[in-house]
Structures are given as structure tokens and as C-alpha cells.
Amino acid sequence: MTALHRARPVDHYENFPVASWLCPPRLRPAVAAIYWFARTADDLADEGDASPQNRLDELAAYRADLHAIAAGRPPSDRWPAVFGPLARALAEWQLPVSALLDLLSAFEQDVVKTRDGAGYADRAELLDYCRRSANPVGRLMLHLYGVSDATSLARSDAVCTALQLINFWQDVGQDLARGRRYLPDADCLEHGVDPIAPAASPAAQRAALLEAECAWARGLMLEGAPLVHRVPGRAGWELRAVVQGGLRILDRIEALGFDTFRHRPRLGPLDVLVIGARMVRM
């Protein structure tokens, strides 16, 4: 999770399991290579004051380097710290290049949506974005662990999409300030919220909208949660932490009265204890 990047529990990549102690040593170089590929692309799309067109041009060059290493050709010399390790990971683990391309597609969409001030028409359109921005991360991790059955992939997609949605719902106010609108237009209209300027709508309608969106995310997370029993060893515990951390953020959003237009939920030491206890119960 694009789960994964900002100290967000479910931002694209800040929660990515970057060579953590829970990750087997033999997988750490590949995990780190995937992380830095995604992190750098996210920065190209998001950081600094470059124009939208310049960002798209940079991402196109980045995509060309990915195609180069996938074909066994040398990339440009612009991002050696990214494409050197990634080329080795591709060769050793036969990583699905389509998942990496999906991530780039999502980053490019971020640039276009911000430039145009566009939102998402409905949940289906937002889910398509999550399919490319979040789900590839889970699938890449499952690939490294040798898990490829259809049920596990579907559960991974549910967890990753839920994490991406939770990220959106906890950061509604911050994202609106950055010109990004993730609340689906259809959902806004259903709850009497102006999709163009949702923060200007009455507080009660905004809260009802966020409550519905959080329920959607929680349902997806619970749908995918059984995956923790399929992922082997320490990674299964890390996944438990990810699942329970996301659910705890939803608890905190509820405690704020579903008002993330003005407040952002934060986890404290007590929340860590709660997450730990819930991990054990899983």
C-alpha cells in the first residue's frame, strides 16, 4: 500500500514492511528494492514544486527505465539506487512487472487528478484506483512468499484496498487542502454533501458520509483478514499488525465523530496495546 507512502498508517508506502525484523533476511533486499521503486515514484508524483507536466514526463522516463531492466537492458543513469537493486530482484524472484506498472499508473493518475481538480465519480472508479495504487503491493509480497492461490490474492486485495481507503478517510481534510478529492461523488450526493466542496457542507451530513465510508473500509478489512493465517511465519504477524492497525484507525475516526475534515486521528501507547491484544486474539 501506494500501502506502504508522512507518518500515515496506510499511506502509499510509509507502512511498507521495509526489511523489517519480521521479514526473513533472504527477502529483505527484494522488499527494499520494491519499496524504493515505489517511494521514488511517489516522490516524483508528489514532492517539490514541479509542474504537473514535468511530473508526468519524469514518471514516463521512470517507466522507460523499468521496461529496460525488465527486458534485460541497462536503464538510464538517473536512478541507479532504484533500478540496480530492482533489476537484481526481478532476476532473482521473477517479480510480476505488471504490478510495478500498475503502481506507476496510479501515481500518474494522482498527478492528473490533482492538476484537473477531478474527483472520483463512484466507488467503482475509486476501487479501480486502489487496484493499481495499493493492491500491487500485497500481491508483490505474496509473490515473494510463494503464495499465489486465488483466495489469498483476493483477500490481499481486500486488505490493501481497505488500507488505502482508511488512509483516505483519516486524511480527508489534508487531502482536500492538497487538491485531492477521494470521497466518491455519488456517495457525497447520497448524503447531501457537495462533492466539489465537501468541507462546506453541514457537519451532520459530512459525518454520515464518513461513517458510511468507514463502514465500507471496515467490511473490506474483515473480508481480507483471514489472509493472516495463510502467510507464513513472522510475516503473518506483521500482517496481523497491519490489519489491526487499520481497524484501530477506524475506531479513532469514529471517536472523533467522523470529523476528519477538521481533525486527524492519532494512535497512542494505549492503542498499541489494544492492537497487540487483538493480534494475539486473531
TrEMBL record:
It comes from the Bacteria. Coiled coil: none annotated. The keyword Transferase applies. GO terms for molecular function: geranylgeranyl diphosphate synthase activity; squalene synthase [NAD(P)H] activity. One of its GO terms (biological process) is terpenoid biosynthetic process. The keyword Transferase applies. Its EC number is 2.5.1.21. InterPro entries: HSQ_synthase_HpnC (IPR017827), Isoprenoid_synthase_dom_sf (IPR008949), Squ/phyt_synthse (IPR002060), Trans_IPPS_bact-type (IPR044843), Trans_IPPS_HH (IPR033904). Keywords: Transferase. This is Squalene synthase HpnC. The gene is hpnC.
